Amino acid sequence: MATNLQLLVSYCYKPMKRLILVLSIILAFACPLTAEAKDIDIQTKLESIAKNVSKDLGLPYTPKISTYDCDWYKSLASNTLIPIGGQPTICVNLSGLTEEEAEAKGMTLDYLIVHTIAHECRHSFQYEHQNDNSDYGRACKDGYNAYTQYYDDLSAYKAQFLEQDANEYAKSYADRYFKLVR
User: Fold this and answer.
1) b or e along 66-82 (b: 16 or more beta carbons within 10 Å of the residue's beta carbon)?
2) Residue 144 carries which DSSP code?
3) Could you tell me where the beta strands, DSSP code E, fall in the chain?
4) What pTM was estimated for this model as a whole?
5) Which residue has the higher pLDDT, 82 or 99?
């Protein structure tokens, strides 16, 4: 049976770009978990948000949530969606989910948390639809085939369809979520 690392490496077929992503994720998981990362409340909150977002998107599954806490590493692969053991997994760096980070993005911390999970779930939705014979499915497939990582070109990364679509959905979902909560 293949290990998670072997599955991750087999997924990463584009040599240099994927190698950098693999190494950044491995380094992220090498960071020690803090009490906050082990806190059942934050894990439960993230899983609950992922479950509700997945239902909203009509996904046939809820991505698994994996957390780590690495302050020195928060700018690299802070949050990402990867297949671990064949299951889509959202890896969340808890060091990036702070009041300071939220304020820098013009959000509250709760809004940032919902937005982050909704954004990553949307990537799961995009992945599921990349083989659809529709304009959206073709755009997703084209996007995955020509994906630009943030460390290669931040402007191109932000401008690409997959990221814009994920951000638009995340904003829409978070806005709806907080209207219902109020």
Assistant:
1) bbbbbeebbebbbbbbb
2) H
3) 64-68, 79-84, 87-93
4) 0.76
5) 99
Terminal-to-terminal C-alpha distance of the chain: 48
Rounded to whole angstroms, the Cα distance separating 143 from 102 reads 28
Q: Side-chain half-sphere of 125: how many Cα atoms within 13 Å?
A: 22
The answer, yes or no, to whether residue 135 has pLDDT greater than 90, is: yes
pLDDT at 85: 67
Closest residue by Cα to residue 56 from 118, 139, 110, 120: 118
Of residues 82 and 161, which shows the higher confidence score? 161
DSSP 79: E
Which tops the pLDDT comparison, 123 or 7? Answer: 123
Confidence of residue 71 (pLDDT cuts 50, 70, 90): low
Question: Residue 181: which of 30, 173, 157 has the closest Cα?
Answer: 173
Burial of 170 (0-12, 13-18, 19+ CB in 10 A): buried
CB 129 within 8 A of CB 136: yes
